[in-house]
Amino acid sequence: MEVIKGSFAFEGIVTGEVFLDKKKYIDEGITAILDEKDVENEIERFERALELSKESLEDLRTSFAGKMNEHDLEIITAHMMILDDPIYVSDIKKSIKKDKLRAEEAVKLITTKYVKMFKNIQNPEYRQKELDIKDVGKRIVGNLDKRFEDWKKLDGKILVTEEIFPTELLNIYHLGIKIKGIVMEYGGETSHLAILAKALEIPTLMGIKNIFSYNWGKDIILDTTEINSCVIIEPDEKTKKEYENLLEKFELKKEEIKRDANLPTETLDGEKVSLYINVSGDLDSEEVRTLKPDGIGLLRTELLYMKNTSFPDEENQFKVYSGIVEKFDKDSSIIIRTLDIGADKQLPYFKMKNETNSFLGLRGIRFSLQNQDIFITQLKAILRAAYNRNVKIMYPMVTNISELREANKLLERAKKELKEENKLYKEDIEIGVMIEVPSIVMMADVFAQEVDFFSIGTNDLTQYILATDRLSETVSSMYDCYNPAVLRSIAFVKKAADLYGKKVSVCGEMAGDAKAIVAFLSMGIKDLSMVGTSILAARSLIRSLNYDKLKEIKEKLLLCHDSKEVKEILIKYIN
C-alpha cells in the first residue's frame, strides 16, 4: 500500500479500477515519410480532421450552454480561434508537402514548434496559449487516428495521467462517459482543468510528481477531501474498511447539504451571511431558484465582448445586462464589473500591443481609461440596466486613487449623456473597486473614503502579493492563498473599510473554499461570492459554525508563519 499526497480540485471519495493513460499525442517523435503521390490525400485528411475538430467544439458549446458557467467555456472560443488561424493551418499543410509527413505527424511537428515558441516567451499571457495549442493539436490528431475511441475504456474508472486538457474532459463528459475521478501530474488548484473538474463535480487530485514512476496496480482509493487530499494505491483490507465508513459519512454529509439548501444562510448563533453567485454570461433562472443566492457578487462582462466580432454597442449591452438583472428580486444586490481585458483575456477584433509582462500592463481600468468611448458606452448600458434596481458598478485592477477619480468623472459624463438622450437610468448608483494589487491594499483607508464597497479578488491578489504566476507549472506550488501575507492583506483591508463603514466582500475562487470561509468569518467578512457549484456546500458549512467563537481565532491566523499553520487551525472547524 502507498499513500501519495496532492492538491485537490473537487471534494470526493471514490474507489475503483485505474485507467493508466501514458499516451502522448504531441512531441512523440516524427517518423512517417510519404510518397509524393500521397501528399494531396494527406492534406485532405488533415482538412477533414480540422472540420471535425471545429464541429466537435461547436457541439460542446451547444451541449454545455446553460449547464455551465460561460466563463468556464471561454476556452472553447480560444480553441476555435486557433483552428481558424490561417498561419497555423498553413504551416501544417506546408509540412505535409515539404517534409512529406503524414497529417498526424505534421500536426505534431508544427504544434510542438508553437508550444516551444510560447514556452520561450517570458510573458505569462503565453503560458495559457501554450496549453491551448497543445490541446488543439491533440484534438486534431485524435480526429485523424481515431485514438478518441480509447475514451470509451474510461467509463467507470479512475483516470491516471500526466495531463488531460479541458476540452478533452468536456468531450468525455459530453459522450456520456462517466469518469469516477482523475489523478494527474500537472496542474494546480487554480488551473482551467481544476475549475472545470469542479464544475463537472469530478474528484480530482493534481500535482503528483513523476506520476508514472509509481506501480499503480489495479485498484486505488481517491480521497480528495479537505483533510486528506491523497490517493492510496493497492489499499490493504483495514484501509478499505476505514474508507467504507468514511464514504458512508461523506454521503450523509452530501444529503445534509441538500437538506440545508432551502434554509437561511446563518451561523449557529444567528449571524446572517450573504452568499452571492459569480456570473460570466447568461444565467439559468432554474439555477437561481435552486441555489437561492442573495444576488450577484461579480458579473463579469468580458465574455460579451469576447463573443462579438466587434465592440458591443450600448443597446446590445443594455439588453444582456437587463436580462440577467431581471432574474433576481428587485432588491437583490447585483455588482457589475466593468470590462477587464488584457493579460490572459484578449479580444479577437482588437489588437493589443505585445508587452513583456501583460499581467502588469494594459488591463482592467487602465484599458478603459485609455479607451474612453468604449468605457462610456459600457457605463451607459449599466446605468440603464440599473434603473430602479439594486445594481452597483465595480472597477477592476485599480492601483491608485487617480484612476478611481478619473473613472468616476467618465461615469458622470455617461449620466449626462443619458439625461440629454431622455433615457431612464440609476442616478445614485454605488461604486466599488476590486482589491487585487498590493498598492490598493496599502491605501485601502484612502479608497474607503471615496467608494461604497470593496470586493477582494483573491486570485489576482494572491498572485501579485506572492509574485507568483498562477498559470506557471514551475512555480504553481508557491501560489497559495493561505499564505499569511495574503490573509494579513485581507484583514488590513477589512479594518480600513470598517473605519469608514464600508462593506467588504470576497469574489475569488477562495470564497467558495471551506477553510477560507472559516477564515473570512473570523475577520468579520460576511459577504461571499462564488461559483454556483459551491453555494449549497458553503451554506451548509456556515450553518454548522459559531460566529462568535470564530472571531477568537482571527489573531491566531494572522500570527501564523506559513500556510501549513494556517490550514491546521482552519481545518478543525470544517468537519
Summed up, the helix count is 23
CATH class membership of the largest domain: Alpha Beta
CATH architecture of the largest domain: Alpha-Beta Barrel
Mean pLDDT: 89
Q: Can you summarize the main beta sheet?
A: 8 strands, mixed
Q: How is this fold's topology laid out?
A:
Elements: E1 2-5, E2 7-10, E3 13-21, H1 39-64, H2 74-83, H3 86-99, H4 103-120, H5 125-145, E4 158-161, H6 166-174, E5 181-184, H7 192-200, E6 204-206, E7 219-223, E8 230-233, H8 237-259, E9 274-279, H9 285-291, E10 295-299, H10 302-307, H11 314-325, E11 333-337, H12 365-370, H13 372-385, E12 391-395, H14 401-420, E13 430-435, H15 438-442, H16 444-447, E14 453-456, H17 458-466, H18 484-499, E15 503-506, H19 514-522, E16 527-530, H20 532-542, H21 547-551, H22 554-558, H23 563-570
Parallel strand pairs: 3-4, 4-5, 5-6, 9-10, 9-16, 10-11, 11-12, 12-13, 13-14, 14-15
Antiparallel strand pairs: 1-8, 2-6, 3-7, 7-8
Helix pairs in contact: 1-2, 1-5, 1-6, 2-5, 3-4, 4-5, 6-7, 8-20, 11-13, 13-14
Summarize the structure in words:
The chain is an alpha/beta fold and 575 residues long. The chain folds into 2 domains: 2-250, Enzyme I, Chain A, domain 2 (Orthogonal Bundle); 271-573, TIM Barrel (Alpha-Beta Barrel), CATH 3.20.20. The chain is 46% helix and 13% strand. It has an 8-stranded mixed sheet. Strands 15-14-13-12-11-10-9-16 form an 8-stranded parallel sheet. α7 links the parallel β5 (181-184) and β6 (204-206). α1 (39-64) runs antiparallel to α2 (74-83) and α1 crosses α6 (166-174).
Give a brief description:
This protein is α/β, with parallel strands linked by helices. It has 23 helices and 16 strands.
